[in-house]
Design brief:
single chain, alpha/beta, TIM Barrel, eight-stranded parallel beta barrel, two-stranded antiparallel ribbon
């Protein structure tokens, strides 16, 4: 697995990270979660991305990976959902950091994002102040923001964060033309979520009301044809996009994880193919904003 610098933060991350949203699913047993997490580390995955809102995900990371803390980079998201605290307040952010550390059995967190925090809240400054205080106290290494569109731009312009997370894939490329270069000029880390665009190729017809619906429409409009599996093409496009330090894919299947690793280990797509994918997006972009 390729290991990369996470911007200029001093952290190193694997090119592929594990999106741990599915890890919190009650249909997954503790035994299965334990096996998934530890085999992922054995396979070279360093970055584990979770959130307050992912049910038992943080708890399971603490339960099954705390003994391997020095081998992993923990990324989580806060700002809401703490009993006794109003969402998107200074105290709620600090409480979220404390609870995440407690659940994940660690005395520090590597990367902590404000999770889709509204632009108007960011502009008020209190939530950014709370993350900065956590950095000063040594409980958070990197203050970060996860979100899209106007909110993402406000986060970048605030200069309060050292890394960003947003959707980057063959069907979601808008940040590549402006925001991403600006972020990298500042030495920021960048995590790409949804690198396989929610795998719209799984559906013969538009999956109305499904998670992949918007990306399916874009994928069909772009009318792409390539001689390799879509999952591989999508992963290699995102993972080797300039400025992306790591891309996170959610799965509970070790077979799928191994396939994803093998895809990324094939390296960057031919430049001609990348140019075609970029042109296809630009040619068909019809207000194709970032997907939250």
């Amino acid at each position: 697995m390729e290991i990369r610098d996470f911007g200029t933060t001093g952290i190193k991350v694997s090119a592929l990270g594990l999106g741990a949203g599915h890890l919190g699913d009650g249909s997954l047993s503790d035994k299965e979660a334990d096996h998934l997490l530890n085999r992922a580390v054995d396979m070279g995955i360093m970055l584990f991305d979770t959130a307050r809102g992912y049910e038992r995900s943080e708890e399971r990371i603490g339960k099954f990976l705390s003994h391997r803390r020095t081998e992993v980079v923990i990324s989580t998201k806060v700002g809401y959902g703490i009993p006794g605290f109003a969402d998107w307040t200074y105290d709620c952010v600090l409480a979220g950091v404390r609870q995440a550390m407690q659940l994940m059995k660690t005395d520090y967190l590597d990367i902590v994002h404000l999770h889709s925090c509204p632009a108007e809240v960011l502009r008020q400054g209190a939530v950014g102040d709370a993350l900065q205080r956590s950095v000063e106290q040594g409980t958070v290494r990197v203050a970060a923001y996860s979100g899209e569109n106007e909110h993402l731009h406000v986060a970048l312009d605030s200069s309060r964060f050292r890394s960003l997370q947003c959707s980057i894939n063959i069907c979601d490329q808008r940040v590549l033309d402006g925001l991403l270069p600006r972020a990298k000029e500042r030495g920021m880390g960048m995590i790409a979520k949804r690198p396989v665009a929610n795998a719209p190729w799984r559906y013969a017809e538009c999956p109305v009301g499904r998670y992949a619906e918007e990306y399916w429409k874009r994928w069909k409009a772009m009318n792409l044809e390539y001689g390799m599996p879509w999952q591989e093409l999508a992963l290699r496009f995102t993972a080797f996009t300039w400025g992306v330090d790591s891309c996170i894919v959610g799965t509970t299947s070790l077979d799928h994880l191994q396939q994803n690793i093998e895809s990324i280990n094939k390296g960057k797509l031919p430049q001609s193919m990348i140019d075609e994918l970029r042109t296809a997006f630009h040619s068909h972009d019809n207000n194709w904003i970032g997907q939250v």
